[in-house]
Amino acid sequence: MHRLLRGELFMLGGFVVAAAVTIALVMPPAIDPAAAQWTQTSSGPLTAADRDLLIKVRQAGLWEMPVGEYAQTRAESQRVKEVGKLIMEEHMELDLITRQTAKKLGVALPDEPNADQQSWMAQLAAESGPAFDKDFANLLRAAHGKVFTVVAGVRSGTRNAEIRKFAQEGINYVMRHMGYLESTGLVDHSQLPEPPTPSPAPPVALAVEKRRHTS
């Protein structure tokens, strides 16, 4: 009786193992979510962050080009008019580079600004004179600060040569535009996001620093 029971248990175990092997062979392998977000291109891996950079730069141009044109008729400050024209013209150049890079890499780009950008456009379209000047300088300066962190982050770590080249161009444009906007004298720096708080130094770094000061 016990011998028979042991035999049946052995056979049952064999069936379980066989079933598990069959399921493992038939079921598709699990896909790593991070790996699923990148594709291989002739210029290297293209990640979700790389695609997001192209999209964000495209959308930046889609609202900054029109408001640069608004500045020509709504601004009171001559410098704001000049800055609006510069930003509009340079975003036309950058938009062409963005579309060319996206086409090379097979990235679909949006044809309209995001919801926040559309609300900023509507706000500026309803203003004129000093109110327009102030909001133009501050809205665009804050927006450039946000996109700068995205561009710099991708530039520092992308594995794609085309994106690396594009991000470098983007950094040059964004830095220049922040300078233009600040040259109006209207940017309220106290309203810009503060730089992130530095992370605590690791113990090794602290030890080295301590030895340097005591030697």
Summarize the structure.
The protein is 73% helix and 3% strand. The protein is an all-alpha fold and 215 residues long. Helix 3 packs antiparallel against helix 4 and helix 3 (48-74) packs parallel to helix 5 (115-125).
Question: Would you mind describing this structure in some detail?
Answer:
The structure is a single chain. Helices cover 73% and strands 3% of the residues. With 215 residues, it is mainly α. It has a two-stranded antiparallel ribbon with strand order 1-2. The protein is globular, with a radius of gyration of 28 Å. The model is unreliable at 15-36 (pLDDT under 50).
Question: Which secondary structure elements does this structure contain, and how are they paired or packed?
Answer:
Blueprint: H1 2-26, H2 33-36, E1 39-41, E2 44-46, H3 48-74, H4 78-105, H5 115-125, H6 129-157, H7 161-182, H8 203-214
Antiparallel strand pairs: 1-2
Helix pairs in contact: 3-4, 3-5, 3-6, 4-7, 6-7
Features:
mainly alpha, 215 residues
What is the number of helices?
8
CA-CA gap between termini: 82 Å
Mean model confidence by pLDDT: 85
Q: What percent strand?
A: under 5%
| Helix/strand order, N-terminal first | HHEEHHHHHH
For the sheet with most strands, the description reads:
2 strands, antiparallel
* Sequence of strands across the biggest β-sheet: 1-2
Low-pLDDT residue intervals, each spanning 5 or more residues: 15-36
Categorize the overall geometry. globular
Care to count the β-strands? 2
Alpha-beta content class = mainly alpha
Q: In terms of quaternary structure, what is this? A: single chain
Helix content: over 70%
Which value, in Å, is the CA radius of gyration? 28 Å
